[in-house]
Specification:
- The protein is mainly α.
- The chain has three helices and no strands.
- α2 packs antiparallel against α3.
Length: 79
């Protein structure tokens, strides 16, 4: 009787939760083996971008907060 209460968080008809297969969109943004290998190869050949080199230098000198600010400014699409 307590399961069929009309108000509150546990209100309504009692049902069992269905387990659904993962949707393709849940995989979005993950890197596959082939793409990861190709990106690492390109990175080795082309080297780092100037802002990445500056980030590495800032991290070496211990300016973590400044490096984080620079990374956020360079990577984000919104300033």
């Amino acid at each position: 009787m307590s399961n069929t209460i009309a108000v509150g968080l546990q209100k309504g008809h009692v049902v069992t939760k269905r387990t659904l297969a993962p949707r393709p969109g849940s995989r979005k943004g993950r890197c596959g083996k082939r793409v990861g290998m190709i990106r690492s190869l390109i990175k080795d050949v082309a080297g780092s971008a100037p802002y990445e080199k500056r980030l590495v230098e800032l991290l070496k000198t211990g300016r973590d907060k400044r490096a984080l600010k620079l990374a956020k400014r360079k990577v984000s699409g919104w300033h």
